[in-house]
Amino acid sequence: MRSAPWWCVGLCVALLLAPRAAFGLVVFEEKFDSDLPNFASYSDWNRSYCSDNWRTDLNGGVIAGRDDSCPQCGCNFLVQGSSQTDCISSDPMDNHIQNGNVYWQNYVYSVRFRNSDDDSMGVVFRYNDSTTFYLFLLSRDTAPAAASGCDEIFSGAALLRVRSNAAPEYLAKIPGVTYALNTVHGIEVAVQYNHIIIRFDADGDGAFAADEKIVDLFDVPAKTIPNGRIGLYAYQNGVQNDGAEVPPPCAGKGCWFDDVKVDILPPTSGNCGAVGWEGFCDGNTLKFCDATGKLQVEPCSSNTCCRWVASGAFYSCVPPTQCGASCKDACKQGDKGCSANLDAKWVCGSGDADACKEPQFTACPGGSICNPKTGVCQAVCVPQCAELECGPDGCGGQCGACGEGMECKSGKCEAPVQGQFGDPCAGSDDCANKMCIEAPGGKKLCSKACAGAGGCPDGFECVDVLYNGNKVLACVPTGICTPQCQGKQCGGDGCGGQCGECPDGFECVAGLCKALDGATCQTAGECAGGLCIPFQTGLKCSGPCVSDSECPDTWSCAPWISASMPSICAPKGTMVAHKLCKEVASCVGGCPPANPACVANCFFLGSKQAQADYAGLWVCSEPACFAACGTDSDCLLQCILDKCFQEYATCYPGTTTCKQALDCMAGCSSSPTCSAKCWDEALPSAKKQIKALLDCLGLFCNDESPPNCIAQAVTGPYAE
Prior knowledge:
The chain is α+β, with helices and mostly antiparallel strands. Among the domains are: about 25-265, Sandwich (Jelly Rolls); about 280-380, no CATH class; about 420-500, no CATH class; about 655-720, no CATH class. It is built from ten helices and 37 strands. The N and C termini lie far apart (about 130 Å).
């Protein structure tokens, strides 16, 4: 009878005992980067508990979706099925997902996990189907027990073997060795035929130390499970508890598995030559390499024949019912691949007495291994980890991982050193003095404050930089900053220097020297305050103000006609005359378009009160009406009466009623000056009435109406 091979006693045992590195060839990796609430339904991972598809959409890893529990003996380990995809809906103890190749025999399987609950999490390996597998678990409270259908209160680690038609059995049980809540740990399982070693990163430092080997079974009891897939296990550690008011501890990012990796262990040479464990048929004689690494030659009996056994992935002597014409091709012409443990390559052909095609194996030469992606033998990569604590091993793996708060530098784990002056940084926490600045050009580095030239060490200069969103002076490497002075007369050059200085009487505004208030000017662009006003003393620079203290001596802060600039600096007494607000308005109305000097002259003709009143009217009407009406006088009048009535009434107080004003206008014959005087003397409310009346009359009378149309229209109800 054929049995599991074991020719790797020397080298492979040494590899099992070695600290974690890249063994042989990485054949499987999973980082769970998907975002799926039903992960096992849309991935290559299979689940055995149909009611839970696990999920990857909550925490960056994968975890069971349901937080199921069982009455003390209300559910089972076993799902009595016959394939790796069988599943039952009522066995939460069987809540695991699996992936990989069922023919994998000797490998190292590692995974990281975190648990915020206190129940069981672990891994399955050499998983054949939902009735045959090994289970390693860690628990702080509830865990499945060896007795079928029951669980127990247990804090520690346990290795169980689950087999069809047999009670689960403990192979190892270690009380007190378990995970810490809310801590990232690692599990590593190494299997080599009947040798099992399990390491648990108990301190959560990301590395497997020599004293973190908690299971070392060299001679697993009878009925060893020789091969199988890998998987993840969670019992009462789901992210949702149906019907519960309070979410379970694993909700959100509390619990997860991540970074699954499987390395196939490399084979060692025996005395089998080119014959692998899968063997071959020499006529009706079976030849294969046995568990001790010796070549076995077994002539098949007269009532059996040598054939490929697809279910076991090896050649064997099979019953007559499987001989002759009943065979089926196990592969297609041109197919190629590797043996389960990568010690041989194969091509599809016919190597026995029948005409069917099956893999034909050729052992890889010593020191090489078969690449499953290409079906070609290649040199084995030997990890280079001598005297290294961490970092790459040269074979795609790592020589180790540093603990929390440590960094890998040149293969050694060291405490991080905060950035010193001039070192690169990402934030202030990276710098010893907590000052990470953004220098010109966007480069970030640890720096220190300075006050100007000479305030920095050799090789550095004092420049303007960004620090916590504000501009400050700090030291940066010399030459990192290029002064920006093109088109500028004054102000900072962006590197801590100046593009120039302004003479007395001038102020730097946006890189240009501009005259202060009171200076003689020709255009507003010459003035720091943005205004060139034709005062009675001539054109002078001015600008906005709030109080007299902001203006030059002998000047004061006076009202101005601008919504955005209600007050400006002006020479005392030179802006005040005696005219009324309506006279100022009449003067402004006679100014040519776009002539601010004329407007200013009219404004200065008013008394102080008239200037304030007219400024109030202008500030209200300029944004509300002039933008909407333009030069349409009817529109402007209506808008001002509607939106700025109080300001209009203050400037145009008037004394006559509506009837008195109309009577006045009736006596003016065709004189527009007379009519305007009648209008000006009307009360603001009377003006509103007159405007409404004229708008109404426009509906009755037009250019084609008889001369007495208006007279007829205002008789009767309009007489008052």
